[in-house]
Design a protein that fits this description.
This protein is an alpha+beta fold and 144 residues long. The protein has one domain: Thiol Ester Dehydrase, Chain A (Roll), CATH 3.10.129. The chain is 17% helix and 42% strand. It has two helices and six strands; from the N terminus they run αββαββββ. It has helices at 4-10, 57-73, and strands spanning 22-27, 31-37, 82-93, 102-113, 116-125, 128-140. It has a six-stranded antiparallel β-sheet, covered by helices on one side. The longest helix has 17 residues, at 57-73.
Length: 144
């Protein structure tokens, strides 16, 4: 299990764009499970939407991607690198994510060759699928 400080040692993201709060399971190069507690005070709720606060779908995908980044960047040979999101395929949204929800994130890396990883991600609330997608990551250095 990783807390927020350990996550910051792996990912370059910082608040308010860090979209995961805790890693609950990690198998480097394979699968990572994480959670994000959705607070009514999140910055994006200021304008999305005024009367019905809904987490933007692109940010749910970002949370899934950051979870996948943990799976890749905890591999010994990838430590200290960056995982850039290169492609999103088959993104589907099944239910709203609203304040008070606990977003359960899981990303499984299905293919990894050279510096490209492909994964399948899913976000759930109360065990029900909120979103899912396929992601492609390009691994690079900070200078590139």
């Amino acid at each position: 299990m990783f807390g927020i400080e350990e996550i910051k040692n792996i990912l370059p993201h910082r608040e308010p764009f860090l979209m995961i709060d805790k890693v609950v399971e990690n198998k480097p190069g394979d699968t990572t499970k994480a959670i994000k507690a959705i607070s009514a005070n999140e910055w994006y709720f200021q304008g999305h939407f005024e009367k019905t606060k809904v987490m933007p779908g692109v940010l749910i995908i970002e949370a899934i991607a950051q979870t996948g980044g943990i799976a890749i960047l905890t591999m010994d040979e990838m430590k200290g690198k960056l995982a850039f999101l290169a492609r999103i395929n088959k993104a589907r949204f099944m239910q709203k994510v609203v304040p008070g929800d606990i977003l359960e994130l899981e990303t499984k890396i299905t293919t990894f060759k050279l510096n490209v990883g492909i994964g399948e991600g899913i976000a759930k609330v109360n065990g029900k699928i909120a979103a899912k997608c396929e992601l492609t990551f390009a691994i690079g250095d900070e200078e590139n």
